[in-house]
Q: What sequence folds into this?
């Protein structure tokens, strides 16, 4: 059975593959391919109000287009003192012209600016990931994972992607970008959601036999 990961984000795809390949499910004849195999698929506009809406939209479109099972991730960082921002707009926080580094700087500036609601010593936040699994026949299931932590004072570390340099997971004193992919894949929102997604994929595999 083939599963198409409905994303062009290399950091995400690497994590999804590494989480799924670390489990027995891949030896159960599951082939994980990326959108690189489908270069003509039109860009999917992520205009949902929630992670779930966006993940479902991406998974359904990709499953219909590829005629394969599609796994779509919509995820982001929610900072408590910014009322959950950047949230569903994490990838576009501050506008399209910003890169990951620019978004991290903007996030730290926004937090510093929130003197009243942001307790500087406790900048709690969480990464959230919703995964949608859709079949070419139109069935869709979603699973969710989250990872609690705090926002660092300055970006630190070189691994990972996105907001990894500013996120310190609970129980650690280093950012995801310092901890590296092996530790991140044991704790992350995406790893937790993928653990649940495995059960869904297993059932689909069994149904395909
Ligand atoms: P989308 O799911 O493609 O809309 O984008 C999610 C955005 O959230 C990414 O571009 C990152 O900025 C951020 N994000 C999601 N998951 C992670 C993560 O594991 N580490 C760092 N940033 C993340």
A:
């Amino acid at each position: 059975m083939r599963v198409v990961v409905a994303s062009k984000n290399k950091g995400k795809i690497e994590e999804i593959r590494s989480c799924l390949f670390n489990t027995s499910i891949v030896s159960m004849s599951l082939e994980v391919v990326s959108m690189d195999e489908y270069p003509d698929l039109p860009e999917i506009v992520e205009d949902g109000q929630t992670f779930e809406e966006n993940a479902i939209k991406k998974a359904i479109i990709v499953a219909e287009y590829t005629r394969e099972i599609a796994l779509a991730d919509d995820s982001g960082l929610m900072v408590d003192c910014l009322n959950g921002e950047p949230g569903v707009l994490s990838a576009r926080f501050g506008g399209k012209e910003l890169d990951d580094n620019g978004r991290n700087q903007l996030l730290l500036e926004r937090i510093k600016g929130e003197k009243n609601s942001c307790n500087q010593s406790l900048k709690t936040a969480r990464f959230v990931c919703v995964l949608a699994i859709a079949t070419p026949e139109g069935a869709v299931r979603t699973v969710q994972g989250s990872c609690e932590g705090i926002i660092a004072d300055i970006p630190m570390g070189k691994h990972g992607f996105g907001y990894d340099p500013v996120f310190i997971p609970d129980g650690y004193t280093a950012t995801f970008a310092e901890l590296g992919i092996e530790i991140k894949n044991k704790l992350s929102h995406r790893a937790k959601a993928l653990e649940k997604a495995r059960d869904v994929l297993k059932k689909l595999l069994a149904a395909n036999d």
In short: The mean pLDDT is 90. Residues 189-208 form the longest helix (20 residues). Residues 1 and 209 are 10 Å apart (CA to CA). Helices lie at 10-21, 24-27, 51-66, 100-113, 176-179, 181-187, 189-208.
